[in-house]
Amino acid sequence: MEKAPNTKFSVSTVIRYILLATTGLAGLFWTWFAIAESISEGYDITGILMHSITPGLLLLAVTLTAFRFPVIGGVLLIAAGIHFRYYFHVQTLAVYAALVFPPVLAGLWSLLTSIPVKPKFQISNEVNEDETKGAAD
Predict the structure, then answer these.
(1) Three-class SS state of 3
(2) What whole-number distance in Å separates Cα of residue 3 and Cα of residue 15?
(3) What contacts 42, CB < 8 A, 6 or more positions away?
(4) CA-to-CA distance for 13 and 47, rounded, in angstroms?
(5) CA separation for the pair 106, 16 (Å, rounded)
(6) Tens digit of each residue's pLDDT, the chain (137 residues)
(7) Would you say 78 and 103 are in contact if contact means Cβ atoms under 8 Å apart?
(8) Phi, psi of 8 (to 5 degrees)
(9) Which of 39, 59, 117, 131 could pair covalently with 27 via S-S, beta carbons 3.0-4.6 A apart?
């Protein structure tokens, strides 16, 4: 796997972190916006917890799970994105881009990059003894 410039991570790992960070930021924004909306609508503490904090914190928890356990977190992120599509009756591209795409893309990328790939052949850096003797002559 090719390394990203000036890092110890592969390019796919960097992309995975970017997608998971985007999903985490979406969860933080969702939590903040829902708290503000719940307060402005006059919900009590139970309403604030159920209406606003729970969905955002669940998305953050699933994102953190995907950082530590890519396969489990990837499946949960895809399930969250599909759930958001049907729960919020998503019909416009803007809502898809805000609610559905970040967790689904992060989940798919987590799953795809966590599958171990066995190389078909291995390139060796070893030099044949015959080649080194010929070069010395």
Answers:
(1) strand
(2) 12
(3) none
(4) 39
(5) 7
(6) 555 566 677 777 888 888 888 888 888 888 888 888 888 888 888 887 777 677 788 888 898 898 889 899 999 999 998 888 887 777 788 877 877 888 898 899 888 888 776 666 666 666 555 555 555 55
(7) yes
(8) -95, 0
(9) 59
